[in-house]
Write a structure and sequence with these properties.
Helix 5 packs across helix 8 and helix 11 packs across helix 12. By secondary structure, the protein is α+β, with helices and mostly antiparallel strands. It starts with 15 loop residues before the first helix and ends in a 5-residue tail after the last helix. 45% of the residues lie in helices and 10% in strands. It is built from 13 helices and eight strands. The structure holds glutamine. Glutamine binds next to loops.
Length: 317
């Protein structure tokens, strides 16, 4: 039998701190090149020179570089928490109202929704996230507080909250989101009042966290669905694999193919400039740089994660 040559990846001896510091230097020239989201006026005020990156490993280590203590608006990253909360409470029933296919269109596009009779392509585009938000309104007694409690437990904390200025700014200018939810309601895919759905949606998008908190809060997706901070089962194995599959195929909108190609990790981005990604069985990595590329993903953030998987030789492939 011919000898099989294997290429070893020595996770244990990996110097994550040094790798993060190298990445911070290498992405620095990109920080000014992206465009801060300005369709939500409160986000337009954020300094594009911010950069932070954190790694949380399943063996309990944390590594940070840059402004990893600075909180920022997590925006669409929150769609993972709301999806997990609904998936964990309702199971496969949620797929009667939402698809599991990449959209190939911008996150707030209306086009497919009309062609596909009010069934959003996936839970990570805005229309899909609003259907999930509607489910949470029906499940929870105190939706905002209950969702915040859920996020805090995932991060192993109790002080994660909402930036009300960002939520109000988004509400004031959220014309497209209002159009989406009205359209969904016209197709009977929203049970609650439109105002309530928009309110909870804008609030969860306006959650603020820093990169360290984000990395810690996604660790359960690298841990077979078990919250490593308290041992609680959030999702079963099968649900966890599926959640990661959805992040890989739909987590960065119409850049999901490019993200898989360059980074090779299931991940989720937000227009606040954050991205979180996981290597199942090993770690969660998060990055923040507010300047966005044309698809609405952090320009330096995608590059930082690509450098991370290149330098560590990690990938889900
Ligand atoms: N709250 C934002 C919106 O609804 C979220 C978009 C995003 O982060 N991609 O437009």
């Amino acid at each position: 039998m011919p000898k099989i040559h294997t290429r070893s990846i020595e996770n244990n001896s990996m110097n994550y701190q040094q790798i993060l510091e190298e990445i911070a230097v290498e992405v620095n020239p990109l920080l000014n090149k992206g465009k801060v989201a300005d369709y939500i006026p409160a986000l337009a005020e954020v300094d594009p020179n911010n950069f932070a990156m954190s790694i949380a490993t399943l063996d309990g280590q944390l590594y940070n570089v840059g402004r990893s203590n600075t909180k920022f608006s997590i925006q669409s990253i929150s769609k993972v928490y709301s999806l997990v909360a609904a998936f964990s409470a309702l199971g496969t029933e949620i797929w009667n109202r939402i698809g599991k296919e990449p959209s190939g269109t911008p996150f707030n596009s209306l086009i497919q929704l009309e062609q596909e009779c009010g069934i959003p392509r996936n839970p990570f585009i805005n229309a899909g996230a609003m259907v999930i938000t509607d489910m949470l309104l029906s499940i929870y007694d105190h939706p905002k507080n209950d969702l915040l409690d859920f996020v805090n437990a995932l991060a192993g904390q109790n002080d994660i909250g909402i930036d009300k200025t960002v939520a109000q700014s988004e509400k004031k200018y959220g014309f497209k989101n209002a159009a989406l939810v009205n359209f969904l309601k016209s197709h009977d895919n929203i049970d609650n009042e439109i105002e309530e759905v928009l309110d909870l949606y804008f609030c969860h998008c306006a959650i603020t966290m820093n990169t360290e908190e984000l990395a810690k809060s996604f660790l359960f997706l690298a841990n077979g669905g078990v919250n490593p901070h308290n041992g609680q089962v959030i999702l079963n194995h099968s649900q966890t694999k599926r959640l990661n599959a959805l992040m890989l195929t739909c987590g960065t909108y119409d850049e999901a193919g490019e993200f898989a190609f360059r980074v090779g990790m299931p991940g989720k981005s937000g227009v606040g400039g954050g991205i979180v990604a996981v290597i199942p069985g090993t770690l969660a990595a998060s990055v923040w740089s507010p300047g966005l590329n044309q698809k609405g993903n952090s320009l330096a953030g995608v590059q930082a994660l690509e450098l991370f998987t290149t330098k560590t030789k990690m990938s889900v492939f």
